[in-house]
Amino acid sequence: MTTLHFAESLRELVGGVDVVLSDIWGVVHNGLESFPEACEALHTYRSHGGTVILITNAPRPADSVQRQLRKLGVADETYDAIVSSGDLTRLYVADHPGRKMFWLGPERDNSIYRGLDAMLAPMEEADYIVCTGLYDDETETAEDYRGMMLKARERKLTLICANPDIVVERGDRLIYCAGAIAELYRELGGEVIFYGKPHRPIYERAMALAGERQGHQIDRRRVLAIGDSVRTDLTGAREFGIDCLFVTRGIHSEEFEGLDQLDPASVAELFGHPPKALMRELKW
């Protein structure tokens, strides 16, 4: 294992790369504002013939994610397509018509079932749970849901996690996501199905969309993932067999503050398996 240095620009890393699979939250924006240099980097890469698929654990369908990106000033020309964990969760709901669903999440995520034949029900009557997040992620943590999860386990309900992230940035704060509740439920012995990174289906969907745009099947050796989470982005890329550029400005920013390079021991401690490269923030 070698020492890891910080790369200065994306252009150093994309020679021989046909497709970039980029995370959104923490790489392209922080939930409150977009990162212009990151958007410019992806747009420039596309202008050189590359394909950019945004791959996100947002518990909403791609069109909803696109509307949010537009509000934050991220131009449509920044990327070719979006794949979200919300899309994959909606496929699960659509494949289970007539079954009663208990939905756990904030009202803003109601697009997870909108337009589908989904029968909403209280947990006492539900056949399964779809979790898109906490009811109030500004004040709550997963521990606030321990009692609810114990009751769900008693009923042996499967929990569908529409966002495997534990935390994300919102401005300069970290807030809890659906993944925190899902991990609690799994610790309590409940069954969880995860959609989104680091799990394989979201990468397979992204690669299929990239192949459509390139007009041929994509060689994984010519793909670069970009993300800011060890648990989801780096692990997901490694297990899918693609390289990863790790952006340190996101949820792990405090761990990298003041570092110019990482020695092998630090690499092992922080990553386990190292990324292809580090970058403080995405820029061309």
Describe the structure in your own words.
The protein has about 280 residues and is an alpha/beta fold. Helix content is about 30%, strand content about 20%. The protein contains 9 helices and 15 strands. The chain has helices at about 35-45, 60-70, 85-95, 145-155, 180-185, 200-215, 230-240, 255, 265-270; strands spanning about 5, 20, 50-55, 80-85, 100-105, 120, 130, 160, 165-170, 175, 190-195, 225, 245, 260, 275-280. It has a 6-stranded parallel beta sheet with strand order 4-3-2-12-13-15, with helices on both faces. It is globular, with a radius of gyration of 19 Å. The mean pLDDT is about 90.
Provide the fold topology.
Blueprint: E1 4-5, E2 19-22, H1 36-47, E3 51-56, H2 62-71, E4 81-84, H3 85-94, E5 100-104, E6 119-120, E7 128-131, H4 146-154, E8 158-161, E9 167-170, E10 173-176, H5 178-187, E11 191-194, H6 200-214, E12 223-227, H7 230-240, E13 243-247, H8 253-256, E14 261-262, H9 264-271, E15 277-279
Parallel strand pairs: 2-3, 2-12, 3-4, 5-6, 5-7, 7-8, 8-11, 12-13, 13-15
Antiparallel strand pairs: 1-14, 9-10
